[in-house]
Amino acid sequence: MSDYLRSYLTVGIFGLVGVALVGVFLGLGRILRPDHPNLAKNEAYESGVEPTGDMWSQANIRYYVFALLFVMFDVEAVFIFPWAARLEAYEVFGLIEMAIFIFILLLGLIYAWRKGVLKWV
Amino acid sequence: MSASLNIIGELAYWQQTGIRVGAGLAAVLLIAGTLVYLHLFKLVSFMQSRLGPMEAGPFGSLQLLAEVGKFLQKEDIFPRKADRFVFAAAPFVVLMSTFLLVVVVPGGPDAWFIDTELGIYLAMAVSSISVIGILMAGWGSASKYSMLGGLRATGQLIAYELPLILAVIGVVIQAGTMNMQGIVFAQAEGSIFGWDGIGNPYILTQGVAFLIFMIAMQAELTQAPFDMPIAESELVSGYMTEYSGMRFLLFFIGEFATAGVFSAVAAVLFLGGWYIPGIDPNDNIMNVLGPLVMLVKIVGLTFVVFWARFTFPRFREDQLQKLAWKVLIPLALANIVVTGILKVAF
User: Measured between beta carbons, which residues in chain A are less than 8 angstroms from residue B155?
Assistant: First the structure.
């Protein structure tokens, strides 16, 4: 295996270590902790009164709109990173290209701004 | 890497990985413990004119172990209507994200976990995995408080993810590489107007980016003033409301470990990482001193984070989104353009 792929194997191993650590903590707790569930104890917490209605209540649509905006800008960042690392090689040509790219994205943000999407409620 | 005596490089892959995993566990858990004791127990106590924990060990230094022992003995309660698998899996995902993030942080010329060209890019990618864990916790709990907290957290984390990423791009432009070691070396070998006494820590040239990064980091860690998701006066404890005992503590460990790791990333990007002025960065001694330097910088940066946490009142949700979208993101984009122009011009 090449060094390049190996370093990603290390990343994977670290992820597994994180999972294993949680497993060890919870496993240790399992030996020590009591386990006496009852109906009242297992009820969802709603300030001490009996919970009413569906637990998965409706949520504000705003969150969804912001998530969509996020996807747009996150994809943009993916394209900017390689450019940023190699800017020295591209010089003025790269600068103008990226200025156009960022300008188009900025238009998107300004459009969302003018449309009132960025205003919360 | 360097021509000096490289002990780790001569071992087999599984031996190297064993050492790295041990170092990674130490880096995550010891730093999380140090931060909880120094900042959460003592710093806040002194700010509020009290002593903090004093009973367990000298100056309460063993309080943390006592806390873990206490949480280990607490009953593990599953809400009746909870989505059991999602509810149980959430802490795993949150802590996994932290461990994936610590991988990119270097501690010395040879003391690194991985040394890839994608360094900081990888860090930005895996840091958003914790959002999934938090959303899982909010959804899986089947409680209205948790659901609201989870959604607020998601809305906040993704909004501040962008300024965080865009602020990093300024540093990448200046360093000309995404490799974390490359960024450290670029700062160590840089000079300020021809004077290379302390290299060129990017906090000097990327001050705006540093400010944006620290604010976004505060929000990513859901520390006050950005603690809407776990606002205890309105949402009990947000997405953690239904968690009890060890599972609750795991979210807590994840929070502080991530605070440490994010500060480590900030230290590498803006404060010169493990480099000490006056010592050749390729010297073998840096493998020993480097991690200590990093620790000092981490404690220093997290001090600022917790100082802000215990000083400022909470943002409202609309103010919070406004700050991210209307101030930080345009500012970060402007920073990229200005940095790019200056880089090409000089």
Answer: 62-63, 66-67
- The pLDDT, as a whole number, for residue B210 is 92
CB contact under 8 A, B143 and A6: no
Coil, strand, or helix at residue B10? helix
Which residues in chain A land under pLDDT 70? 1, 55, 57, 120-121
**Would B287 be classed as within a structural domain?**
yes
- Can you give the pLDDT at residue B2? 40
Is B52 among the domain residues? no
Q: Say if residues B238 and B148 touch (Cβ distance below 8 Å).
A: yes
Domains for chain A: give ranges and CATH numbers: 3-115 (1.20.58.1610)
d(CA B292, CA B289): 5
In Å, what is the CA distance from B296 to each residue of A63, B62, B276?
38, 21, 12
Please give the structure tokens belonging to residue B151: 């959604």
pTM equals 0.88
Report the distance separating Cα B126 and Cα A119, nearest Å. 29
Distance of alpha carbon A39 from alpha carbon B77, whole angstroms: 11
> Which tokens go with A45?
């917490």
**Closest chain A C-alpha to B47 CA, distance in angstroms:** 31
Decide if B38 is inside a domain: no
Establish if B29 belongs to a structural domain.
no
Which value does ipTM take for this structure? 0.84
